[in-house]
Amino acid sequence: MAYRKFFLWDASAYIYASIILLLGCSSVAVAKGPSPWLPDSFSAKFTQIYLSAVSGKEQRGQGQLDYAYPGKIKFAADKPDPFIFTSNGQKTWYYYPPFIEGESGELSVQEQGNLWLNQFFDLLRYGPQTNDRYTATAQGLQWLLKFSSSTAKEVQTQQAQLKFKTKAKQFKELQEIVLLKANGQKVTFILEAMNLAPNLAAGYFDFTPPPKTKIKEI
Hints:
single chain, mainly beta, outer membrane lipoprotein receptor (LolB), chain A, twelve-stranded mixed β-sheet, 4 helices
């Protein structure tokens, strides 16, 4: 349950289905460069690591991440608790399937789509280069991004470390993202099996609830 509370939202402020999705939503201006560094879309297996605010112990979650520029993102987690979070850039769904087959799942829906994690990826469109949104510093196989105060508020993140397999630091070699959240909590995403040309059909980032689902509009 602790993993559910934290994933994508700070646990102290956003609690499961009764309060979830109450996120600040604002448009992020993307720093432009000569050519995109972030692909139009990608898919990857992810492992999320964070320290539990309750026990202080390391917690892990796993699943599939899909993204399409601009502002479309989907997480389908399978461990430790299955859920689907998906946003088409205009609308967001957060779905927990039932624990027992035949019972009702729970879905929260928000008529907004610019949440902090899709905003974060959008900011990387033209690569980790210093601009008015963040400063970028190369550190060996890493880029350290420190966000401006206004951007940090929008993406709810103070800084980010991008860790790569080689010094070329191409997006396809990105293997780990470490985020220092606005509340001081550190969240790590380990990316594996990166696919830079996934087959994401029209409507992929929309969500149609199964029968019996309890739906709450936020």
